[in-house]
Amino acid sequence: MNEHLILMEPVRLALQGIVDRMQSRMMRAAYSSIAREGGDCAAAVFLPDGRLLAQARSLPLLLGSLIPAVAGVLKRFPAPQMTEGDAYLMNDPWSGGTHLPDLIVVRPIVREGVTIALAAAILHHQDVGGMAPGSIPPNATDIHQEGLRIPPVRWRAAGVVDSNVETLLTANSRTPGNLVGDLNAQWSAVSLGARETAALQARTGPAFNAVCDALLAQSERMTRDALRQVPDGAWQWEDQLDGDGIDDAPVRIAVSLRKQGDALTIDFTGSSPQTRGPVNASPSSMMSAILFFMRSLAPQAPNNAGCLAPATWVLPEGSVVNPRLPAAVNARTATLKLACNAMLSAWSLGASREPLASNAGVATVLSLGGTGANGQRWLLTEIIASGAGASAQADGTSGISTDVGNARNTPVEVIESEAPLRVSTYAIREGSGGVGRFVGGHGVRRVYLLLDGQGSVSYRGERHVSRARGSQGGGDGSPSAARIERADGRIDVLPARARVEWSAGDRLVIETAGGGAWGAPDHTLVAPKDQPT
Fold first, then answer.
1. Cα–Cα separations (whole angstroms), residue 423 to 413, 483, 484, 494
2. pLDDT tens-digit map of 369-410
3. pLDDT by residue (tens digit) across 103-122?
4. What is the sign of the dihedral through the CA atoms of 167, 172, 178 and 183?
5. Would you give the end-to-end CA distance of the chain in angstroms?
6. Closest CA to 513 of 382, 423, 400, 367
7. φ and ψ of 100, to 5 deg
8. Chain-centre distance of CA 474, in angstroms?
9. 153 Cβ contact list (under 8 Å, min separation 6)
10. CA–CA distance, 167 with 105 (Å, rounded to integer)
């Protein structure tokens, strides 16, 4: 037992290094700018029974979803049947996936004929088919409109790609070269993870499994200790999406946190029924928000799934957080961000005398595609940040991905080199954070000029109507806005989710929301605003 204790910290650090190097390798090798520059990908290592052992310090939006994805692969391909050089591929939200552009690759880590662990990588691909370039149509009403749906399949055997699988994939993508290149980047990442994890197990010897179990138990123990520090109670929060892309009626996101001792129930009962539009989030997607929230309770704990042990979660079937097939799901990011924001806000009511102001809860996703004057097709996807909520100690940060978001800025130079676009404005949207003793973080303003040809815009925003709430008398953040300024002077205002056409000379203007402020502007502390129950 003492040997296990001695080895725990070296093994924890070694595992964290492995998954971070997997992440770095994948981003360096990726073809698409959304992964290479934006970091819309994630890597992790699992035990052969599907328990998350270590995850990269990357994108929470994807990290948590790898847990059900690996479980889905193992259900169809049990670990004892896996062999060296195998790799499995999937994206189906009802088998553990998120939305269809997120392809997941899982490789067994085999030593002496035995699967000792699993290396997994998820990456947002540029296009996997469907009714709109980029495979994120904001007006989809059925998942079959969103692209190619892939249950767990064997993609490689003994390291060799199954040509039938690859032919099927490339035939359904508008950017087949990028798809193959990005898949190879994922293979490179999981192969690195397999080599280094096998070497770590060899160095650690027979104690490896026991040390891994101890690291999971340590994460659970530290999370339970953090829960015990907060008085028992129940706290509620609700927020709303600005429609679903088809209907304008608000979509309710409601959460209740019930904490007793060292256990916590996370209950989304009261959230809206599943929607016609694509804002539905499958349970595997919701795992990302839940894992992020539970990790935030004890951030110094080992970066594994042990933090989930104290939690029970309720996701009502047929709701926007647990839709039935064939619900459209491509715009689930907004739902996850507001769900995560709701958990953080509800928790702050019980854990703090000075509840935090709300983050903007927006990660605007753009998928731009078209045909240039030379007849060449192009496609670009990027993520635009918003503002963080303020606290009792500081202003909110401007232009940042918050909570489950951690995507990076796509440099203007990259955008202009990959598409016939000129980014004429990229700036902090001053004044969009709420006004208060500590102001909310400001959103971002981007203006794109289409230089030639024609194209389409798939816009997935949020907070066009609702606002990030301030706390302790602080003001709410400003809402988002988007429009196309036509070359002939007309202006088309876009709703929170839209798909439109544009032509050379048109400008697309994106303004993301700001975070809420903390404290009254005159520095006088007032009672918290009434919170919904």
1. 9, 15, 14, 19
2. 998 888 889 999 999 999 999 999 999 999 998 889 888 889
3. 999 999 999 999 999 999 99
4. negative
5. 48
6. 400
7. -65, -30
8. 28
9. 88, 89, 90, 162, 165
10. 17
